[in-house]
Amino acid sequence: MIIKGKKNRYLRSQAQTMKPVVQVGRDGLSENLLKQIQLLLSKDELIKVSLLQNTLVDADQLVDALTEFDGAIVHIQTIGSKVVLYKKSPKVKNRKYSIELEKI
């Protein structure tokens, strides 16, 4: 799934003031880390992930691993060592950004 245009711009603007909720460190990409990111996305819909200096993983590897793990995860933006990810929440009560995206 790819989000383009005004929808992508909206999600980027919302992520601008967010702080990273997950940090990828020396351990790299593990099954546990991928599950944690998937759980956070199902709850919050939009998260920011930070890649620490001592990690051996780059942003492209992280995005590839996540989209392979869960095809519904969408890469919104990468700036330096920060990656913004989006996934529509399965629970209606957790949908904040997807409701706004439907209006656009």
Automatic annotation (TrEMBL):
The keyword Ligase does not apply. SUPFAM superfamilies: YhbY-like (SSF75471). Keywords: RNA-binding. InterPro entries: RNA-binding_CRM, RNA-binding_domain, YhbY-like_sf. The keyword RNA-binding applies. It comes from the Bacteria. Residues 1-98 form the CRM domain. This is YhbY family RNA-binding protein. It comes from Companilactobacillus mishanensis.
